[in-house]
UniProtKB/TrEMBL annotation:
It comes from the Eukaryota. This is G2E3 ligase. Keywords: Ligase, Metal-binding, Zinc, Zinc-finger. Residues 1-65 form the PHD-type domain. SMART domains: PHD. Pfam families: PHD_G2E3 (PF26054), zf-HC5HC2H (PF13771). PANTHER family: PHD FINGER PROTEIN, PHD FINGER PROTEIN 7. One of its GO terms (molecular function) is ligase activity. PROSITE patterns: EPHD, ZF_RING_2. It comes from Melospiza melodia. One of its GO terms (cellular component) is nucleus. Residues 80-127 form the RING-type domain.
């Protein structure tokens, strides 16, 4: 954004209230026409909101988020394909399914962690198909990684090359773009304190100059 537009967005965000935590400084607005719900990126999981990490980086509140349309499942094996713990009987924000085999069920947080570790080899953990599974997961707000699978070692890639280096906020306010980072100040990039696979500029988060650690919506 031009500097003038960035300042305007910051001023507008400062006056918007997050409908989840009820605090000011909400920078994300639901993309549904006519919906004025705004929220902070870290609050999104608590409000069951969805952000699509591709294209225009659209975000949706709990009411307008995309829904999976699946046929009734012949079996009633209500266990997560990944962690083997119980999942909900019905598809929901927390319980997702594979559109290819129509049978695999998994927790949202389980499939998100798998996506970050599997990288370019991300596929359904049961039927092993990539399409339309990958497209569906992107639409439902699962963030994918363009890296090789974490279980494959690459001797040419050092630890410093593997550090996440872009802002994943739905609306990045940095005039230099998502890839621009600084050692200190508002454009310092904070990595998720749990997975380090997502990052956000200080000014693009709800934490501002706080010294508190930041955790991404996945974790």
């Amino acid at each position: 954004f031009p500097v003038g537009d960035t300042r305007r967005i910051i001023r507008e965000a400062a006056n918007k209230t997050c409908f989840i935590c009820c605090k000011m400084g909400a920078t994300i607005t639901c993309c549904q026409t006519g919906c004025d719900r705004t929220f902070h990126l870290p609050c999104a999981p608590d409000g069951q909101c969805v952000t699509q990490y591709f294209g225009a980086y659209r975000s949706f509140c709990w009411e307008h988020r995309p829904q999976q349309a699946l046929r009734p499942r012949p079996s009633q094996d209500n266990t997560c394909t990944i962690c083997l713990d119980t999942v909900e009987d019905n598809i929901s924000y927390k319980t997702m399914a594979c559109p290819a085999c129509q049978d695999a069920r998994f927790h949202r947080h389980c499939i998100q962690r798998l996506a970050l570790h599997a990288g370019i080899d991300f596929r359904c953990p049961r039927c092993l198909k990539q399409e339309p599974f990958m497209t569906e997961m992107l639409t439902m707000g699962i963030r994918l990684s363009k890296r090789p699978p974490s279980w494959q070692s690459d001797p040419e890639v050092g630890p410093s090359d593997q550090r996440h280096g872009r802002c994943d906020a739905t609306t990045c306010l940095c005039p230099g773009g998502r890839e621009h980072t600084e050692a200190h100040g508002p454009w310092q990039l904070r990595l998720c304190s749990s997975c380090a696979a997502e990052g956000i500029h200080r000014l693009c988060s709800a934490l501002g100059n706080s010294t508190c650690s930041w955790e991404c919506s996945t974790c």
